[in-house]
């Protein structure tokens, strides 16, 4: 068997262990963390964030070990500033770090191009990379992934609070991203040439910064031979990131097989897909939303069972079926991250409790019970 390697990126807020607010210490924390993990850690859009990324991994056990080690290294680097890495899609409480721009030319160019739209663009995501060396295959595989993206939003939803208030949504991060003209689900494409014409036209329209680097939720990465899936909130628990990575790899491998058999993917209606995204962002798990292929309103649990049936052979091939079924049991028992955040708040109606719980789980790594 030829192994399809995987990698994951997780973004975290840097939160004061006393203040529980986001603090602008990214440059200092990244410099300290790099003494341990080198370039597997980097800054992010705001100085109140950092990102860790695994090297390519052959299996999800290795991926989880890497994620846990990287979270530990980030936590160790935070300690000198009385901070901790906090895995949530949006900041529960604000702070100065939520508005201090990171030092990167692309971030400054984004502010010049999109202006006030970026004022509250304080979000943390989980990205999954799956090795797909042929770009033509990768862009067509994305067609097959499009209908499943809203379900991944519901499964990973972990951003109900934004700077001190309950938004009423499970994934406010998804709502923030949806306002931009070239974020969210990628369009259906007929070929790599079609994809490149679209991205070039969008760059010329100034709807995106760089035709080689669109911010769609699925894209062939321009620097490494992977298909990158960017739809998910960062989970508080690394075990959930590993399980979602397993699901995404299975989806991609299944899609690649179908593309190589001549199937370019379903032409899912863009408006229906947009509605499915919104419903998943609002309700999270458990909840219901449109099945993007049929338009029928189905519980996310039913949609997840359909996904499991769809990719079971690939999950079995890579030994990931047990990890994914354990993740689905956790969702059934405890809900998505948004439900868990609200459960923390409900104990004493204190958002500081939510932050404390997130800091604790982020720091522990992959320890969720089945």
UniProtKB/TrEMBL annotation:
It catalyses: L-cysteine + L-glutamate + ATP = gamma-L-glutamyl-L-cysteine + ADP + phosphate + H(+). It holds the Pfam family GCS2. Its EC number is 6.3.2.2. Gene3D superfamilies: 3.30.590.20. GO terms for molecular function: ligase activity. It comes from the Bacteria. InterPro entries: GCL_type2/YbdK_subfam, GCS2, Gln_synth/guanido_kin_cat_dom, YbdK. Keywords: ATP-binding, Ligase, Nucleotide-binding. It is an enzyme of class 6 (ligase). ATP-dependent carboxylate-amine ligase which exhibits weak glutamate--cysteine ligase activity. NCBIfam families: gshA_cyan_rel (TIGR02050). Belongs to the glutamate--cysteine ligase type 2 family. YbdK subfamily. This is Putative glutamate--cysteine ligase 2.
């Amino acid at each position: 068997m030829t192994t399809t390697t995987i990698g994951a990126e997780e973004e975290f807020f840097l939160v004061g262990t006393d203040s529980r607010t986001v603090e602008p210490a990214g440059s200092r924390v990244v410099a300290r963390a790099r003494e341990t993990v080198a370039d597997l850690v980097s800054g992010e859009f705001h100085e109140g964030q950092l990102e860790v990324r695994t090297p390519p991994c052959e299996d999800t056990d290795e991926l989880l070990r890497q994620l846990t080690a990287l979270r530990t290294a980030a936590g160790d680097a935070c300690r000198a500033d009385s901070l901790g890495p906090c895995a949530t899609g949006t900041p529960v409480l604000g702070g100065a770090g939520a508005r201090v721009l990171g030092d990167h030319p692309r971030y400054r160019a984004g502010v010049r191009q999109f202006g006030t739209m970026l004022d509250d663009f304080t979000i943390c995501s989980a990205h999954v990379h799956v090795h797909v060396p042929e770009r033509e295959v990768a862009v067509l595989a994305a067609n097959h992934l499009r209908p499943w993206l809203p379900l991944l939003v519901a499964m990973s939803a972990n951003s109900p609070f934004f700077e001190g208030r309950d938004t009423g949504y499970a994934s406010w991060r998804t709502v923030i991203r949806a306002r931009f003209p070239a974020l969210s689900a990628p369009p259906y494409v007929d070929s790599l040439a079609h994809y490149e014409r679209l991205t070039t036209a969008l760059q010329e329209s100034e709807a995106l910064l760089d035709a080689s680097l669109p911010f769609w939720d699925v894209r062939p990465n321009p620097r490494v031979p992977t298909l990158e899936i960017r739809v998910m909130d960062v989970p508080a628990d690394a075990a959930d990131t590993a399980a979602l990575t397993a699901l995404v790899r299975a989806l991609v491998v299944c899609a690649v097989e179908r593309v190589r058999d001549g199937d370019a993917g379903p032409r899912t209606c863009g408006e229906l897909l947009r509605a499915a995204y919104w419903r998943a962002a609002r309700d999270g798990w458990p909840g219901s939303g449109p099945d993007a292929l049929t338009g029928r309103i189905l519980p996310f649990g039913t949609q997840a069972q359909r996904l499991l049936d769809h990719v079971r052979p690939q999950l079995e091939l890579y030994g990931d079926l047990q990890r994914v079924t354990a993740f689905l049991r956790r969702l059934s028992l405890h809900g998505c991250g948004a439900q868990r955040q609200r459960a923390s708040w409900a104990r004493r109606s204190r958002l500081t409790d939510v932050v404390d719980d997130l800091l604790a789980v982020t720091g522990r790594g992959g320890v969720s019970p089945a």
